[in-house]
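Researcher: Next entry in the queue.
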Amino acid sequence: MDRESLKPPPLTLLDRYRGQGFTALYTTTVTVTGGEAAHGRASGTARSDDGNLVLDLRLPEAMGGPGNGTNPEQLFAAGYAACFHGALSLLAQRAQVDIEQATVAVEVSFGRDPVDGGYGLNAEVRVRMPGVARHQAEELVRDTERLCPYAKMARVGIHSIVRVID
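Model: Structure for this entry, 166 residues:
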């Protein structure tokens, strides 16, 4: 696919939704199998329903694993960074601000949660916009935090249903 055929989504994605309930615009399913260790995180494979994503999952060395594969924290960080960058790009386009050189880096940490003794995630989003005045960059980032579904999920949670199927 040549670069000229790749285009950003339309600004109409910024139009306010006025419906009564959640309306899905896109849905995907990724299935993880356990692999050699029968443990999705340690030796699994992640496959998307359309076949475009096929990844070996491996426990990172920092957690006692071999590394040499991706892990859930990397996948979450990639999704968060891509979504945030996309929302930022739409808002910058609407404001007629050139952010072609902008980068969004998301650092995700997996660790122990003192609240319940289990585990939790922390995320830090770092946005760089060379050539954009700081006050304008800060305003774009604040607006992006309100628009980006990953930022919203990190702030207020996500509707999640967990169930056993046959």
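Model: The mean pLDDT is 95.
Researcher: Noted, moving on.
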